[in-house]
Amino acid sequence: MTVHEIAPSPELAEYVDAYWWSEKSSSGMMRILPDGCADVVFDSKGAFVVGAMTRPLRIDAAETVGAFGIRFRPGRAALALRTPLTILTDARVPLRDVTKRFPVLDPTRLDTVEEALRTIFRDAPADPRVDAAVDAIIRSGGQASIEEVAAKAGVSRQHLARAFAYHVGVSPKTFARVMRFRRAIALARGGREGWADLAAELGYFDQSHMISEFREFAGDTPVPFFLSAAD
Questions:
Q1: pLDDT at position 55, please?
Q2: Do residues 18 and 74 touch, judged by C-beta distance below 8 A?
Q3: Nearest CA to 171 among 181, 160, 182?
Q4: Does pTM top 0.90 for this prediction?
Q5: Predicted local distance difference test score (pLDDT) of residue 229
Q6: Which of 17, 29, 60, 100 has the fewest CB atoms within 10 Å, counting from its CB?
Q7: How far is the C-alpha of 81 from the C-alpha of 97, rounded, in Å?
């Protein structure tokens, strides 16, 4: 499977992480990893929503040939769908069962997709406290203290957890763990060596803690994961 991505227009960059579409290059299983985002996907069977993930998703690559997806930035899909993201966590749900507000889109016409999204977000009030917290967690690579993040956002940790449940679909702590996992993958793919040193750099208690969390989000420990072609 070959997946292509394109960035949104500058006007939509604060809402959309990327548009993507898939083409067949080989058969077999494909592993999709948690990234804190939610997607609206169009394929030959219709449209569906994939919520934020807390575990890897394994799919048959042949089933996603020709799919087109809108990957929203963390905290933004709820504004488009006008529904709490917590009900979509680790789920794949037909779009019609989630909302009637999202228009029917032609994924072959990116200009009409963007025009529809501009209309959707025009009157969609964001929560600046969630935005600030999401940004702080991402910038820290998942190492930011949730208590400090909540304090800087001017809310209690409990209030922030409720806001994240609606806008992101997972708790601030889980979101931070996913961001740290993604940072670990990026560093390892960039050639950073030594799992013990990497664990210390990323704030894990020890190497076994990092490996355990890696297995939770990737479905494998680091060595077999990086030897696999399914990610």
A1: 95
A2: no
A3: 160
A4: yes
A5: 58
A6: 100
A7: 11
State the Cα–Cα distance between residues 63 and 178, nearest whole angstrom: 26
Angstrom distance (rounded) from CA 31 to CA 140: 26
| Predicted local confidence at residue 25, as pLDDT | 59
191, pLDDT greater than 80: no
CB 24 within 8 A of CB 65: yes
In angstroms, the Cα distances linking 43 to 34, 110, 112, 178 are 21, 15, 17, 27
Spell out the residues 6+ positions from residue 127 whose beta carbon is closer than 8 angstroms to its own: 75, 163, 167
Convert the pLDDT of each residue in 48-59 to its tens digit.
999 999 999 888
Q: What is the 3-state secondary structure (H, E, C) of the chain?
A: CEEEEECCCHHHCCCEEEEEEEECCCCCEEEECCCCCEEEEEECCEEEEECCCCCCEEEEHHHHCCCEEEEECCCCHHHHHCCCHHHHCCCEEEHHHHCCCCCCCCCCCHHHHHHHHHHHHHCCCCCHHHHHHHHHHHHCCCCCCHHHHHHHHCCCHHHHHHHHHHHCCCCHHHHHHHHHHHHHHHHHHCCCCCHHHHHHHCCCCCHHHHHHHHHHHHCCCHHHHHHCCCC
